[in-house]
Amino acid sequence: MAKILIGIDFGGTNLKIGCFDEKLTLLIKDSIPAQINAGPAAVVEKIGELTARLVSLCGHSTYDIIAAGIGTPGVVDVENGVVLATSNIKFTNIPLRQMVRDRLNVPVILENDANVTCWAERVAGAGKGAREMALITLGTGIGGGVITNGELVRGFAGNGGEIGHIIIKQDGRLCGCGQRGCIEAYGSASATAARATEAIAAGGKSSLQKIIETNGQISCKDVYEHSAAGDELARQITDETAKSLATLCINLLHITGPRRIIFYGGMIEAGELLLEPIRKFFNEHIWKIRKESIELCFAALGAEAGIIGAAALASYEFKKGKII
Ligand SMILES: [Zn+2]
Fold first, then answer.
1. Distance 241 CA to ligand 1 centre (A)
2. Which of 139, 169, 212, 242 could covalently link to 181 via disulfide, CB atoms 3.0 to 4.6 Å apart?
3. Separation of 256 CA from ligand 1 center, angstroms?
4. Ligand 1 center to 174 CA (angstroms)
5. Does residue 255 sit within a domain?
6. Ligand 1: centre distance to CA 164 (Å)
7. In angstroms, rounded to a whole number, what is the distance separating the alpha carbons of residues 68 and 313?
8. How far, in Å, is the centroid of ligand 1 from the Cα of 253?
9. Residue 15 near residue 25, CB atoms below 8 Å
10. From ligand 1's centre to the CA of 160, what distance in Å?
């Protein structure tokens, strides 16, 4: 009987699970509400039930599972399989890998969700085959993953590869993590909307004012739309977002030297409006000593990246004998 891999994308809202064959072809997937308020044990039970149902629906038994991978938000101790801390779901020091392993009775790897997405893009997306790459997820916050010499950077105690909290401005804006000046406080969707709102509150004139009057607030999407339509204030804000992301790319370049930097997440819906100025500022500000061609591009995978990456990582780590 052919063997299968399980990819689990555990988000704050939904729990997505996919069954894959050994070549990482998706056989079946489903998504259910994660209902995290019920606690870790209840979430693990849901993982067990949904996995068993999907495995059966694609004509397999749980004995055919080679390994399972789980992507979760937050800081993860990969070696010990523990969710150390998360900001949006209140899981602290949860031994999620062991819990899922006990429930499914298969080898399991637990990894931070942005790292899982990074791995998915490396295996099946815009970074296919790259040994040196980075992925930046642009949403409410900023996350990411770094691959160097073909391996994910995890660092000591899960602190490595936390791209969103690289400081780009000393004593700058306060970030949700408690540090000041993080890229997340400048280049994320929420920071872009917040900076525009602040600029208008400080007396700036903008066509965005009507949106505030109608909706009570503005979104990052509004800022990009008004920037594209020629609004001066919105343009300044989107340029500032682009400059901050270009700065992050240059910093990444000098740490691990990625060949390709890939953008993923809700903000990339802005398309070239987002990417073109990042490339412009990147090229203007990067050092002039020696200029290799670094590609800045969009991710190729969509919402399925979480389950693909989790299954692919489980397969990779299992083959290396890292998970049993
Ligand atoms: Zn931060």
1. 16
2. 169
3. 20
4. 8
5. yes
6. 6
7. 9
8. 20
9. no
10. 13
Q: Tell whether 99 and 163 lie within a shared domain.
A: no
Q: Round to whole Å and give the CA distance between 284 and 250.
A: 11
Tell me the pairing of strands 142-148 and 133-138: antiparallel
Tell me the one-letter amino acid at 104: L
Same domain, 313 and 200: no
pLDDT of residue 2: 87
Tell me if residue 207 falls in helix, strand or coil: coil
Nearest to 117 by CA among 90, 92, 89, 142: 142
Statement to judge: residues 164 and 90 lie in one domain:
no
Residue pair 190/266 in contact by the 8 Å Cβ criterion: no
- Nearest by Cα to 186 from 165, 202, 206: 165
User: How far, in Å, is the centroid of ligand 1 from the Cα of 114?
Assistant: 15
User: What stretches in the chain show pLDDT beneath 50?
Assistant: none
Residue 36: what pLDDT?
86
Which structure tokens are listed for 162?
């936390």
Nearest to 186 by CA among 223, 239, 241, 242: 241
Beta-sheet pairing, 65-72 with 108-112: parallel
Predicted pLDDT of residue 88: 65
Q: How many domains does the chain have?
A: 2
Amino acid at 148: T
Give 175 Cα–ligand 1 centroid separation in angstroms.
Answer: 5
**86/13 Cα distance (integer angstroms):** 14
180 CA to middle of ligand 1, Å?
7
